[in-house]
Design goal:
503 residues; mainly alpha; Growth Hormone, Chain: A; 2 domains; MFS_Sugar_Transporters; MFS sugar transporter, putative (AFU_orthologue AFUA_5G06720)
């Protein structure tokens, strides 16, 4: 295939890559917002045969199961296919899902098309954050990667407002056109992807990454069964940390508000359908406003602290929502319900400023290069698995548990605080290779802190141990050389205005 040099080199290429990644995540957000906005449309409910709460959860959640399957596909194929081919496959699957979904005339057709579209979204969301994080400077990585979840908020908010405007149209066009509109974003992303270089070739052009590849080759090829292994740079632990970040991202309660906000405002707060749809759009705008904060300040504020204060803020919001909605059936029901809306606004503002954006940059940073794509796919699988879980139980929580359902998410957010404090290191402003050193030093220090005479003797006499020690020594020396050469490469790129963005 001929290479398409659409964007040139240097800053132009860097900005083109950023814009391509942002448009992909706008598409991701639009898909979530569009279905959430049409759930209460009467014609839509007729098509899906007036589902019960459980079936409605399946209609929403089947998309997330498709996304989970997409992350598995990315796990197995993205390293071999590269960014460009993987993205074209993802756009193809999204197109196959979007057209029959917009033309659906039965529940089965809606379920099948949402599942297929979900596979495409799962592939896309697995590879885009890794691609972006590898091709930007360490000091700007937070801003670039955090701008992707900001784009999700833009997509969700735009979809809500489009659905609100279309709600005044008669018939099925009120929900079919918003769902079909995702094709515009699919076409744009498919065209933009033709420009940037395919990532295996581009990454090899960067000297620092090339040296890091030599370091990783000492460990041999990493198969999927070895991703969770315990080695000198704690690969298994780091994959689990990345998984945990996406678990925190989903289990704080955000998908109750994103996927079912109009239903929540009608059934729990007591608002009419039009007011619920209007306020739902405004609530999603708060999501976007909050996401601007980490986009511009995450490299200054770090990763760990925003996650911690964000979880605490979400805990307070869920607690207040539970308290205020518990007045249902009393004379204070109406004013208490109105007051609870303020905490839905505040929840989305805090979520956008913390737990929404940070995991998408924090997760790939934590992962070593040799499992970065596979490890990120595992992390993103947590996003879709628990997204599906919340989508499934959401309608039941809203209609049956009512205010008590929010207590579950209140407790979850509180539980995240000690986990973040105890187990997650700070990675802001470190290169991806320096983060490897951070974990390697910790592992070495831990192993050297509790020596014993018997262990020392057996290690000396054990050929396997001697070999492992030699490999670790060579690994450490090679990694030190990697850091020196990567730093020299960054300085040279700054002086010469190099054609490739330093990593």
């Amino acid at each position: 295939m001929a290479k398409l040099e659409m964007y040139g080199r240097g800053l132009g290429l860097r900005m083109a890559i950023l814009f391509t990644c942002l448009m992909a995540f706008v598409l991701f957000g639009y898909n979530q917002g569009a279905i959430a906005g049409v759930l209460e449309n009467e014609d839509f409910r007729n098509v899906v045969e007036h589902p019960s709460s459980a079936v409605l959860g399946v209609i929403v959640g089947i998309y997330n199961i498709g996304c989970l399957a997409g992350t598995a596909a990315a796990f197995m194929t993205s390293d071999r296919l590269g960014f460009r081919k993987s993205m074209w496959i993802a756009m193809g699957l999204l197109t196959i899902g979007a057209i029959p979904q917009a033309c659906a005339y039965s529940r089965a057709q809606m379920l099948a098309s949402r599942f297929i579209g979900g596979i495409g979204t799962g592939i896309m969301t697995s590879i885009v954050p890794v691609y972006q994080s590898e091709l930007c400077e360490a000091r700007n990585r937070g801003m670039y990667v955090c701008s992707q979840p900001l784009s999700v908020g833009v997509g969700i908010s735009g979809a809500y407002w489009f659905v609100y405007g279309m709600s005044f149209a008669p018939g099925s066009v009120a929900w079919r056109l918003p769902i079909a509109a995702q094709l515009v974003f699919i076409i744009i992303v498919a065209i933009l992807v033709a420009g940037p270089e395919n990532d295996p070739k581009v990454v090899d052009d960067a000297e620092g990454i090339f040296r890091a590849t030599e370091l990783d080759s000492l460990r041999g090829e990493y198969k999927w069964s070895q991703v969770l292994k315990k080695d000198e740079i704690q690969t298994g632990r780091r994959v689990l940390l990345a998984y945990g970040l996406q678990f925190i991202n989903q289990m704080g309660g955000v998908n109750i508000i994103v996927s079912y906000v109009t239903t929540v405002l009608q059934y729990n707060v007591g608002l009419d359908p039009k007011t619920s749809l209007l306020l739902g759009g405004v609530i999603q705008v708060m999501f976007v406003i909050g996401s601007f904060y980490p986009t511009f300040y995450s490299d200054r504020l770090g990763r760990k602290k925003p996650m911690m204060w964000g979880s605490f803020g979400l805990f307070i919001c869920m607690m207040m929502i539970s308290i205020l909605l518990s007045f249902k059936g009393t004379p204070q029901e109406k004013p208490a319900g109105a007051a609870s809306v303020a905490f839905f606004f505040l929840f989305m503002l805090i979520y956008g400023a913390s737990t929404n954006c940070v995991p998408w940059v924090y997760g790939p940073e934590l992962l070593p290069m040799h499992v970065r794509t596979k490890g990120n796919a595992i992390g993103i699988s947590a996003n879709w698995l628990w997204n599906f879980f919340v989508a499934m139980i959401g309608p039941t929580l809203i209609t049956d548990l009512e205010w008590k359902g929010y207590l579950i998410f209140m407790c979850m957010n509180l539980a995240f605080l000690p986990i973040l404090y105890l187990y997650y290191p700070e990675t802001a402003n470190l290169s991806l290779e320096e983060i490897d050193s951070l974990f390697m030093v910790k592992a070495t220090s831990h192993s050297c802190s509790t020596p014993s005479a018997s262990t020392s003797t057996s290690s000396t006499n054990d050929p396997d141990t001697v070999t492992t020690e030699k490999k670790s020594t060579v690994t450490a020396q090679t990694h030190a050389q990697t850091q020196t050469q990567a730093q020299t490469q960054r300085q040279t790129s700054k002086k010469e205005g190099g054609s490739f963005p330093p990593v």
